[in-house]
Amino acid sequence: MIIHSTQGGEIQMAPSRYSRLINFLQEDLAISAASLAVALRHREQDPGSLTMILWQYGLITLEQLEQIYDWLETA
Length: 75
Description:
This protein is mainly alpha-helical. Helix content is 61%, strand content 8%. The chain contains 4 helices and 2 strands; from the N terminus they run E-E-H-H-H-H. The chain has helices at residues 15-27, 33-45, 50-56, 62-74; strands spanning 3-5, 11-13. Strand 1 and strand 2 (11-13) form a beta hairpin. Helix 2 (33-45) crosses helix 3 (50-56). The protein is globular and about 30 Å long.
């Protein structure tokens, strides 16, 4: 796993892993493109975790959030 820390201290994942995460969200969890677009817009303004933004805005369930973190642990 490759993690990069920015000057502000936020943690970012490598672009290839980020692409796989987006694919997992769309293909395996059936998160709509519209939901992802909303989360990505908010992430630009507040660069928090994409998964937490999806959950905070009610775009994914707690069960889906757990599945995402399980995926992140093994990806």
